TrEMBL record:
Name of the protein in its database record: ApeA N-terminal domain-containing protein
Domain ApeA N-terminal: 57-252
A matching Pfam family: HEPN_Apea
Domain Apea-like HEPN: 354-416
Amino acid sequence: MDKKLREALVGTMGHFWTSLQDFPESETGRPGHGSKVGPHYAVRTMKTAEEGWRLDHERQYPAAVVGATEQGGFLAYDIRDMPENSIFGGGATTPVKSYHARAIVVGIDPFDLASTDLLAISATFPGVIEWCGAKAVVAKTKKGSDGKPESATFELRKIHPVTAKLKRGASVEIGVPWKARGIDAEGFIGAAPLQFTVEYERAKNWYDLINPVANFQALLSLAYDNLVLAGEGTAVIEANANEDPSNKGKLWSSALMEVPRGVSEPAERRSWPSFYLATIGGMPGVARWIRLCAEYPRATYPLTNKYSIGTGTVEIEMINISVAIEYWVGSCKRNGRPKWTKSGGKNHALTLARHVGSEFATFVGDIDKWAELFWNRYNALKHQPGIKYDAYEMSYLMRTGRILLMCALLNRVSSTKSPTKSICSSHMHDSLGHRIRELLDSNPTLFEGW
């Protein structure tokens, strides 16, 4: 991590403004302190006696907090809370206003900025380079006359980035930047993480840029079925007319770099992903996924929320996945795909299972039988919450429902059925496939009335 960014997270003193237009006026700047506190970054500033106290509904949240700190120029984004309190000591009372942010940028010069809007955000994701099919590090071993390894060389290769249009005036890019820090006592030190960038031709607000990066992170986490955290980040802020502006800074984002409460810690060693960049159609597929997340969050979020807020009980997850399937089939029906959307009647799980490809039928054994049981259990949970059920059975059904929804959405993204083939044949889901086929072979009794 960048030295200035690390120091700012530990704690920094400075003066802070809630508007770039007020910088660097001393009358509007407030002395204060910033540091990382739990999942957010807290900027605590001293209030003047004239400011008084404001109720929650009276507070206006700034787009960003601008700072002049020990580490230089500073910006805090994604302000989520503005608590106010007083500090007592030495016979005096000091009123304090705090700004709880989920991201900061350091290493910029506020004098060079035209606004706090952004042009680009980049984030690196270590340990997942194989997902994009790139090979930045090549190892060559030389053997001696006895056939045993005698020496080894490691070559770092430049990987040309690939880009795609996200929408008018915006693009996304995947690259593999590498860096080597020489040789220490234990050997060669180098890194070649996957890097994702979203860039706009015209400056946009924080959420326009961070959401595509977060959705890409969700796609990676979905591929590995495990939270994938970003290691480092940079942000490019809209600059004024200076010839060489200092408008590119180091980024820390809680959403990208911290494990959310309730979410499992990332695995130390990940298994192979259930699908790859090529599976979903390369960079155009990534762009389509990001647009899909923006347009149909009710379909994508039940798949990815386990990496942002964690999972609930099996009943909640079963209902969420089933509702998402129902919503997706309904959306496709409304958007000009009526033929296949009618194949399963009122059982939307059957409709979708018949559409995603034969590999899903092989995975569950019998799609008609699976869909009947799945929809029966979903309707029973929805209309009769007190019903008694087998938790293991419900878990297997819910998890296969997740796979069905994932296949359907990624098929749309890739414009092929390659994702279904890749996901259903992945070793990651071998055990689940075996369990669900065993369950269907046991002919479980359907709940009456559903």
